Amino acid sequence: MGKKSKIWGRLAIALLAIVMIFLGLFAYMGGFSSVQVSEVTFGPHTIIYATHRGPYEEIGSSWEKFQSRWEKAGLKECKSLAIYLDPPDTPPEKLRSILGCNVEHLDASEQEKLAQEFPVFEIPAMQSMRSEFPYRNMLSFMLGPIKVYPEFQKVMEEKKLQPPVAFEIYGDPDHIEHIEFIMPMEEPRTTFAPLEDAFESSL
After folding, report:
1. What are the extents of the domains in the chain?
2. Is 12 left (phi over 0), alpha (psi -120 to 50) or beta?
3. Which CATH class is domain 38-201?
């Protein structure tokens, strides 16, 4: 009995250590942080973009191709963002995502040069829901939406909103500090028709 008690005691200590490590990691990732939702005016912004059709898990490869193109075109810093056009119950293979760089900080000649290589979309000023989530590592791209979108859903149900799209703002891909989540509150879906058309032309 003595040896068994020692074994069980060690297992209990090891299990407790694992749990503490997990809880510490979860806290570091922002898992215990409260999500604050505010109403803000988002936009106007000018973006260049590329399209991605398919599961969100495969966006990384599309982003790498897009980044290679904008670097080759001479863009030194991409203020990155994504626009998600479809509701979450859409079949993964049909999900449409826009991968973009905010280029409004560039002068007119630089924007014109990029417009020769990429499609351009003008995001209008929109009254929107906003929240943010700290970025720690790649897991933040999964944990952030899990924490934020249920809080957005509560506001949508309370105010009977049907946001046309969802934005996620990342900033400099090499130095992301937080992920900003934006959902327009009353903007018509037709505002984003050019982005939907981009997928039709790519078929």
Report:
1. 1-32, 38-201
2. alpha
3. alpha beta
